[in-house]
Structure formats: C-alpha cells, structure tokens
Amino acid sequence: MKFCVGQVYDGPGNMAGRYSGSAITTIYPKALYVHCGSHVFNLCVADACKLQLVSNMMANVRIVSQFFNFSPKRFDILKKKNRRNVSRTLSFLMSRFWKHCHLSLLMINNEEKSWNHDSVRDANSYFFATSSFQFIVTLVVVSCSLEITRPNTKQFQSPNFDVLASHEKVPLLYDALQRLRSDIDDDRSGSWYSEIVVLAASVGVNEHKPCIIGNQLNRNSSPCELINKYYKNASRIPFLYHLSFQIQLRFSNRNISVYNGFFAMLTNVLNVSEWRKNFILFLNEYEVDLP
Fold it and tell me: Which domain of life is it from (predicted)?
C-alpha cells in the first residue's frame, strides 16, 4: 500500500516498538508516529521535568506521598492537617499539600514513642529533604508554570474533545508560555518569588542559595549575587524554556497537517465553512502519494 497516512498504533500490541509498528515509518516516512493529543501533552511536561532541580523535587514529592499513602495511620495525620477541601489553583494546592506534609512529618518526629523506628527514621529523612529553600522554590515554580497548562490538559482528556481543536489550542498555549518568559526576562513578574518567601517563612525555612564553586556537574551554577536572580536563572527560566520548546517540537506543523485530513469527514464538510481550504493542506502534504 503506497498511500499510507495516519497514526502508527501505540496500544497493547506495542506496535510502536523497534521491530514492529515503527518499521512502517521507515518504509513510508509520511506515516507519522504520533500519540493522542493528551499523551503528547503529558510527554511535553515529562520532558520538561527532567531538569535536575525539577527531577529532584518531583522525586521527593513522590516519596513523601508514598510515605503517607501506604500507611493508614500516617495518612490519617495528613488528613487531619488538611481538613478543608477548597477548590483553588494548582499552585495553591501543591503548596498547601507540601506544607501539611511538612508539618505532619515534624509531628511524627516529635512523637517518637507513638511510632515505630522505621516511621520515625523515614519521617526525619523526608523532613530535611523537603525543608530546603531550593526545594520550595522549585515546587512553586513548577506548580505556577503548570497552572497555565492545566486547562489544556483537561480539554485534551475529554472524550468530546475534537482533535482538530489542537490547531487553535496549542498555539495559544505556546504564546502564553512565551509571554510568561518575557515577563520574567523583563523582571515584571516578582510575585512568584514573594509567594516562595512567604511559604518558606511559614515553616521556618530561611531564604538562601547554594554555594557556587568552579564547574559544577550535578546542579546549576548561576553567578548571581541576589538570591531571587539566582533561582530565576537556575529554575524558572530553564523550566519554562524546556516546556515551551517541547510543546513546539511535539505539536509540530507536520504532525498537525495529518489532522487536516479529518476535514473531509461529512460532519466537517457540512459544518465548517473552510473545510476545503484545510483539506487542501492535507492533500499538499501527500500529493506524491495520491493518484
């Protein structure tokens, strides 16, 4: 079959593997390998979270969450600390969750006689791992940045979401991230750091930055005297850059052009006035494969 257009299946049969479905793309390069919109969006966030500071923060959050979830007794303490179920922003929820976890870990440390040795040891270790100012900075930076992407995540996961809507949604999201980056570069966005300082002070964590020495391999080395400038260059700008870059890369124009083929469907022909213009973009992409 010379005319091979569409998505290479990525399901239970593992057709996207090295010797199975991906072989289609070597024979027919225009049979693009793409995921559903929601999965592509998750991959963008996952790749952006591979930054060292973000990866360390996420690992600690995951470990602390498991520490409470795997024990009904420990989870009950956390539940009592977090009695109010208020619908707020993602950044607020993540910050509040961290604060309650932090206080619950401290309570376990202070009540050693009520807990076994393993619980006290782990609580003490996790308490100090999540007490650094750097951890708090990264937590707030990631949560505030992902707050922008959350509406798109919900829409992409909806069973009623039209794949063609990605034409409009993704460019708007990319522009929003670019504006946020511009605000940071122009120093017009200082509220994020004020939130960090207040949150840290509420649990007795002082504002500070790591010592800078020579060439460092395992953490960022930003030569800034001011603490807020250091974390802007070491965490927030890199994270926003990687997130916007991944969105631009994975939602490329070539991948989106495949979806223009859906404009030939009867519902779009009848309801979309410019269906022919969009469908021509699809035809142009596969012109040499058409009879």
Answer: Eukaryota
Helices (H), the chain: 23-27, 37-48, 52-69, 72-81, 90-110, 117-129, 133-157, 166-185, 191-202, 227-231, 237-250, 253-259, 266-271, 275-285
CA–CA gap between residue 198 and residue 200 (Å, rounded):
5
- pLDDT tens per residue across span 22-34: 567 677 777 766 6
Question: Residue 2's pLDDT band (boundaries 50, 70, 90)?
Answer: very low
Q: How far apart are CA 243 and CA 246, in angstroms?
A: 5
What is the per-residue pLDDT across 95-105, written as a single tens digit (0 to 9) for each?
A: 777 888 888 89
Cα 10 to Cα 13, 21, 41: the distances in Å are 7, 8, 15
Structure tokens at 108: 């376990």
Integer CA distances (angstroms), 264 to 13, 56, 260, 271, in order: 29, 47, 8, 11
Closest CA to 176 of 147, 142, 148: 148
Structure tokens at 274: 């410019």
The amino acid sitting at 111 is E
CA pair distance 42, 88, nearest whole angstrom:
22
Closest CA to 251 of 176, 166, 180: 166
| C-alpha to C-alpha distance for 2 and 282, rounded to whole angstroms | 16
Compute the distance between CA of residue 156 and CA of residue 124 in angstroms, rounded to an integer: 40
d(CA 226, CA 233): 11
Q: Helices 117-129 and 90-110, interaxial angle, to 10°?
A: 140
Tokens describing residue 9: 């299946």
Q: Which residues are CB-neighbours of 237 under 8 A, at least 6 positions away? A: 181, 184, 185
**Which tokens hold the place of 6?**
């569409």
Cβ burial, residue 156 (10 Å; 0-12/13-18/19+): buried
